[in-house]
Specification:
Blueprint (H helix, E strand, L loop, with lengths): L1 H12 L3 H41 L2 E5 L2 H4 L9 H9 L4 E15 L4 E9 L1 H8 L5 E4 L7 E5 H7 L6 E7 L5 E12 L4 H6 E5 H8 L8 E6 L4 H8 L3 E5 H4 L1 H39 L1 H9 L4 H36 L2 E2 L4 H6 L5 E2 L5 H17 L2 H8 L3 H7 L2
Parallel strand pairs: 3-8, 5-7
Antiparallel strand pairs: 1-9, 1-10, 2-3, 2-6, 2-9, 4-7, 5-8, 6-7, 11-12
Length: 403
């Protein structure tokens, strides 16, 4: 009996092939576009978060108490090298870097701007976050007074490769010191703080310039693969300010939430279209076959078998549309992941907010699983009203009326 119902449902699904194929095409196009939009939204968010994590705080960051408020060298971590060695030997820690930051004034012959100097070890930074990949122009060279500068700061001061600048700040003794630097490279990290205000020099040079010990640091950044590590580190190093990436970057969390809202709205709109499309096909199909259902009920077929047949018909339409949408959506997502969308004409505005000119998408299995559940649910819900009409049928009156 059930095999017969499935066969009847399959044939009736294509009783009007043009109408059914139109709905299938609608589901396919809507779903593939929705998957592409979801991939782009998540890709934008993940790209920004990844670059901010690699160029800035990592997964976990250590500061001395009061440093984030005061930005004063006296609140530096004085045993940073020892802590770094301890962290590197901990299970789950992938990489650790030390950084020294000094806020001051960056000047050229014609202009000046408040900025900050950041001392880094370029080899460790490359291992930590592939720093050399941020290079926009020139070369990553931090030797003998060489420096690398953020893109927006370079634009602000109209600097180019080979330009000479002077950075002035207070050293560890409170004296005003200045150092002449030559720009060797320009980087774009899409981390707004770094691109707009940072000039990078070798960490050994900044120690000499500021008069700090080689074991000191203003920041210890950690990349790890253990999400539970933050709690253990906060307990172990209670005398330091230990923060996770999202604690230091609340805007990243807000951006994730905004992207989730955008994706949810898109998802709701597409599923509403799917529901209306399948509902329209099933409702018209049932009206076309109302005499058929009346005869079936008149011959003694139980209503539950008719209901099952109609549910299966709706599922066939939804499943075929889903398969088409999944195939084309996967192709679109792969293209967006590998090639991205070129928005170079809006590059200035995008860079201002930390986005790249070419936006790449991402692919998640959850896109397909949640869409599958939603389409099947929409397919089943779309036949509830038509089923109510069948349930109220008086078989004899329907057969007479159709004569």
């Amino acid at each position: 009996m059930y095999s017969l119902i499935v066969k009847m449902a399959w044939k009736n699904s294509f009783l009007r092939p043009a109408r059914t194929l139109l709905v299938v095409a609608m589901i396919t196009v809507s779903m593939s576009m929705m998957l592409g939009i979801q991939g782009l939204y998540d890709g934008m968010a993940e790209n920004m978060i990844d670059k901010n994590r690699r160029s800035g705080s990592g997964d976990i960051t250590f500061y001395a108490k009061e440093y984030r408020v005061q930005k004063d060298l006296k609140y530096r971590i004085k045993n940073a090298s020892a802590i770094k060695d301890e962290l590197k030997n901990m299970q789950g820690v992938k990489s650790v870097v030390l950084r020294v930051r000094a806020d001051g004034l960056l000047s050229t012959a014609r202009k000046s701007s408040f900025s900050f100097m950041q001392g880094i070890d370029i080899k460790e930074e490359n291992h930590f976050g592939r720093f050399s990949e941020f290079l926009k122009e020139g070369e990553i060279k931090l030797e003998n007074g060489d420096a690398v500068i953020g893109l927006e700061l370079a634009k602000k001061l109209k600097l180019h490769i080979g330009s000479k600048v002077v950075f002035s700040t207070q050293d560890v003794m409170g004296e005003i010191n200045s150092v002449a630097l030559k720009i060797r490279g320009i980087v774009q990290t899409t981390n707004i703080e770094l691109d707009d205000g940072a000039i990078f020099i070798d960490i050994k040079d900044i120690h000499r310039f500021l008069g700090t010990s080689s074991g000191d640091a203003t920041q210890i950044a950690v990349v790890c693969k253990d999400e539970g590590l933050i709690g253990r580190l906060q307990t172990k190093y209670g005398g330091l300010d230990v923060k996770s990436f999202l604690e230091l970057q609340p805007m990243m969390k807000m951006m994730q939430d905004i992207m989730f809202i955008f994706n949810s709205i898109t998802f709701f709109i597409v599923m509403s279209v799917v529901f209306v499309g399948i509902f329209g096909v099933m409702y018209v199909s049932i009206l076309d076959r109302i005499r058929e259902f009346g005869i079936m009920l008149g011959l003694g077929m139980h209503y539950k078998y008719i209901r099952l047949q109609i549910f299966i018909e709706a599922m066939f339409v939804g499943l075929i549309g889903y398969l088409g949408g999944a195939i084309f959506g996967a192709i679109l997502l792969i293209y967006l992941r590998d090639y991205g969308v070129d928005l170079s004409s809006f590059s200035d505005a995008l860079e201002m907010w930390g986005y790249e000119a070419i936006i790449h998408g991402t692919i998640k299995i959850s896109y397909f699983t949640t869409t599958f559940v939603a389409i099947i649910t929409a397919s089943l819900l779309s036949v509830i009203i038509p089923l109510r009409k069948i349930k109220k049928l008086n078989p004899i009156e329907v057969i007479k009326a159709e004569k």
